[in-house]
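Transcriptional regulator, AsnC family: structure, please.
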Amino acid sequence: MKLDPVQRRILALLQKDSTISTQNLAEKVGLSSSPCWRRVRELEEAGLIRGYVALLDRRKLGLETCVWVRVKLKKHSADVLDRFEQAVKGCDEVIECYELLGETDCLLKLYLPNLEALSSFMHNFLLKIPEVDVTNSSVALREIKNETALPL
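Here you go.
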């Protein structure tokens, strides 16, 4: 779907504050409420807007530690990857998971309370997955940038 300038502005504003009223959104993009509402619905129906969420402060929830875990699988086959994916999808500590090209097969992003929780995650979950061969973890010292808004 090719976006026009109004649609881009709507998406940019909703990425910053999805609780904005239709009236305020309409005023900011130069439309009346009804056409603005229809534009938002079109963007939702086209799948450009997948949903609306509340962004939580992980630190205030006690999730102080951000960890990246690189995983190398024992074999490269569809069934091995499928079993690994199913295990990871069922784990709440894994915030993001990517399949990669190169020496690492998958990259996991975790938010955990502390390093003890990382040890528990590794020993009680990740290293118990039969498909996992080698892991390598990196702990973030500090967060420099973490945005949710996509560049439009």
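Notes: The chain has two domains: 5-45, 65-139.
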